[in-house]
Design brief:
104 residues, alpha+beta, four-stranded antiparallel sheet, three-stranded antiparallel sheet, 1 helix, 7 strands
């Protein structure tokens, strides 16, 4: 199961079955939303700027607050590009740390 991620006072927990549960962050357990997609999540959610990215087996989903969303097609392409850019940056950091530990 992918680990939860927290943003904007909410905790998002995606499941491998395509369901996502959203809890209000705080001491009491309060479910504020649920969703079910015809897809499955294996990867951790990623937070970029004001968007939550959920990488599923079929699609990459970008979720943003109302008023923060752009045109759907442009947003999907842009979301995929930003997601891949952040992945490449993360791997570059890991590679340089690995090389530094090897004495390169």
């Amino acid at each position: 199961m992918p680990p939860p991620v927290s943003a904007g006072g909410r905790v998002y927990i995606p499941g491998q079955d395509g369901g996502t549960v959203v809890f209000k962050a705080g001491p009491a357990l309060e479910v504020i939303a649920t969703s079910q997609l015809d897809d499955a999540f294996d990867a951790s959610p990623a937070l970029v700027d004001n968007e939550l990215f959920l990488g599923a087996r079929k699609l990459l989903y970008a979720i943003a607050a109302p008023g923060q969303r752009g045109e759907a097609v442009t947003r999907r392409r842009s979301a995929q590009q930003r997601f891949h850019q952040h992945l490449h940056q993360a791997f570059a950091v890991v590679d340089s740390e690995r090389d530094a530990n090897r004495g390169h």
